[in-house]
């Protein structure tokens, strides 16, 4: 592990000692006042646990991976079982980031988790760098909803669930074509979690792999949400999309990446945790786009009969 770009300087010694103590105990802890992340080495990978602060202390909300799908999940040729390591922990005046590095055959993947002080929206970027040739079917990140560490059988049903579209069949996915309100959300009581695709990082034109999401509530021992790169095709009507092995693509000496935000809360009003996500999306995406001088919002209503937006 290496520690770099720590600032201000006064924090160097204290934070380095703290991290070394956590590492010695098999756990690394990063927090920003409202969200806590713990990293524990389990086998060849790291288990990420996200906690939200409440009046009773820190409460577990999400853990990466699921009983159905690991995190990250890379299905590609020339990729074996990944070996993960902590590449860097960086302390800034405004927050902290940690970089995980995973080596799997000819694939080198990184996961950068960035937490700003006092900000409950954690930004995460995954990148897969491919040396030589590979055929890639998907590259996904997954989190299980585990309120207070409970499996689904202990607290079912969920009080609130939201996805941008339905996927009633097992081969169907949530295509980025339907990312009009891009968020995957779950809530039980006051515990709420959301994965929000960072649409600024989605390339809608020159891309070899499209963006896709998935949510499954009763398939595994805990509900889980996934997001990443996976090709899809229109299946039926205009609202159902499917993935198949045949949609894998051949790439060579390149890199693929995607980003998203995680939001966890232990104080959300019942069935209303989504309100913070709505405000976040409006502030980050809706309002800036609405203010652009081009697009349907800049046109008179009379023009709508000549062009469909």
Plain-language structure description:
It is a single chain. This protein has a single domain (3-305), classed as Beta-galactosidase, Chain A, domain 5 (Distorted Sandwich), CATH 2.70.98. A hairpin with a 3-residue loop joins β7 and β8 (95-104). 11% of the residues lie in helices and 47% in strands. The chain has three helices and 19 strands. The model is unreliable at 1-24 (pLDDT under 50). With 309 residues, the protein is mainly β. The radius of gyration is 20 Å and the shape is globular. It has a 19-stranded mixed β-sheet that branches. The chain starts with a strand and ends in a 19-residue tail after the last helix.
List keywords for this structure.
single chain; Beta-galactosidase, Chain A, domain 5; 309 residues; 3 helices; 19 strands
CATH architecture: Distorted Sandwich
Strand content: over 45%
Instruction: Please trace the helix and strand order, writing H or E for each element.
Output: EHEEEEEEEEEHEEEEEEEEEH
Largest sheet: 19 strands, mixed
Protein structure class: mainly beta
Q: Give the total of domains.
A: 1
Shape: globular
Radius of gyration: 20 Å
The averaged pLDDT comes out at 89
CATH fold naming: Beta-galactosidase, Chain A, domain 5
Point out poorly predicted stretches. Answer: 1-24
> What is the first-to-last residue Cα distance?
50 Å
Assembly state (oligomeric): single chain
Overall strand count: 19
Q: Kindly provide the name of the CATH class.
A: Mainly Beta
Total helical segments: 3
Helix content: 10-25%
């Amino acid at each position: 592990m290496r520690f770099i770009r720590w600032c201000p300087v006064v924090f160097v010694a204290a934070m380095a000692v703290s991290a070394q103590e956590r590492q010695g105990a098999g756990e690394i802890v990063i927090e920003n006042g409202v969200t806590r992340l713990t990293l524990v080495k389990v086998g060849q990978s790291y288990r990420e646990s996200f906690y939200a602060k409440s009046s009773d202390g820190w409460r577990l909300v999400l853990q990466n991976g699921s009983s159905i799908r690991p995190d990250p999940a890379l299905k590609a040729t020339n990729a074996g079982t990944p070996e993960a390591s902590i590449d860097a922990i960086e302390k800034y005046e405004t927050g902290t980031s940690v970089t995980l590095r995973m080596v799997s055959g000819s694939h080198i993947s990184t996961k950068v988790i960035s937490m700003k002080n006092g900000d409950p929206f954690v930004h995460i970027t995954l990148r897969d760098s491919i040396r030589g040739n590979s055929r890639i079917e998907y590259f996904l990140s997954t989190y299980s909803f585990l309120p207070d560490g409970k499996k689904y059988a202990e607290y079912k049903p969920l009080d609130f669930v939201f996805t941008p579209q339905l996927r009633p069949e097992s081969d169907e996915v949530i295509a980025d074509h339907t990312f009009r309100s891009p968020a995957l959300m779950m809530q039980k009581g006051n515990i709420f979690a959301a994965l929000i695709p960072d649409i600024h990082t989605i390339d809608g034109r020159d891309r070899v792999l499209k963006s896709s999401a998935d949510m499954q509530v009763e398939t595994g021992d805990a509900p889980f949400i996934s997001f990443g790169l996976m090709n899809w095709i229109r299946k039926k009507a205009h609202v159902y999309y499917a993935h198949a092995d045949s949609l894998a693509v051949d790439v060579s000496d390149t890199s693929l990446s995607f980003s998203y935000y995680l939001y966890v809360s232990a104080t959300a009003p019942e069935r209303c945790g989504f309100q913070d996500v709505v405000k976040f999306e409006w502030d980050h995406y809706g309002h800036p786009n609405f203010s652009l001088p081009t697009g349907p919002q800049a046109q008179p209503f009379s023009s709508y009969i000549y062009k469909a937006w």
